[in-house]
Design goal:
About 40% of the residues lie in helices and about 15% in strands. By secondary structure, it is α+β, with helices and mostly antiparallel strands. The strands form 3 sheets. It has a two-stranded antiparallel sheet. A two-stranded parallel sheet has the order 3-4. A two-stranded antiparallel sheet has the order 5-6.
Length: about 210
């Protein structure tokens, strides 16, 4: 996680940290004013082709090929019934299967009142915003994509070099770049200068808004 402290209207990054669980972030003291989380926070009741409305709108905004980075969440039913390891092998994308336990943890913790503090974001939308509404040209897994994103965050975020040079277990540079871009989105949320997809969101069965912020 990449945090920041506000000085006037400028957000200055703090030392990045790794948390083992979503609950640890929620329980952190002093608490964060805004948490911009790159993880699904809302889940449709049943499997939904193409995902939530916010997922479809994000793909339309980014266009091909960056639209492929926007995954759809599994259903809440899938997260709450049966064995997780078994379910991870049944028709899910590799990313969703790998993330299934994390999704289940988030689904258990997320309640409607938490959306005063916790918001779902996506790095590709954050980079799109940072880049004057132009999507990235290269995938983040490629050297070109890493270089493209690094140049952008260094140009736009004061003091980000120390964050990008930090060494944390299991954390690659592309993860730091994603978190740095999402930190700027958190700043926009704090300033109430954020855009919502969709503007008029739906709610899932637990009363959590199904939206992405950028």
């Amino acid at each position: 996680m990449v945090g920041a402290r506000l000085q006037g209207i400028t957000a200055f990054p703090t030392e990045p940290e790794v948390f083992a669980t979503f609950a640890e972030i929620l329980d952190y003291r002093p608490s964060f004013d805004v948490l911009a989380v790159h993880c699904h926070l809302s889940f449709p009741a049943e499997e939904t082709p193409g995902g939530r409305t916010c997922d479809k709108l994000a793909r339309e905004l980014l266009g091909w090929p960056r639209s492929g980075a926007i995954t759809s969440p599994p259903s809440r039913r899938l997260l709450t019934t049966g064995d997780l390891d078994q379910r991870a092998r049944k028709g899910l994308s590799p990313i969703s299967a790998q993330m299934l336990r994390r999704y289940a943890e988030v689904a258990e913790e997320m309640q409607p009142y938490r959306q005063r503090q916790v918001f779902e974001v996506h790095p590709e939308l954050s980079f799109y915003q940072l880049n004057d509404d132009v999507p990235m040209q290269h995938a983040k897994e490629t050297p070109e994509g890493v270089d493209e994103r690094r140049r952008l965050v260094v140009a736009r975020i004061p003091g980000i070099d120390a964050v990008l040079e930090a060494k944390l277990p299991g954390v690659e540079l592309r993860h730091m770049l994603d978190a740095s871009a999402d930190m700027v989105t958190a700043r926009r949320i704090s300033a109430r200068a954020v855009d919502r997809l969709p503007e008029d969101p739906e709610w899932d069965g637990a009363g959590v808004r199904m939206e992405l912020l950028r």
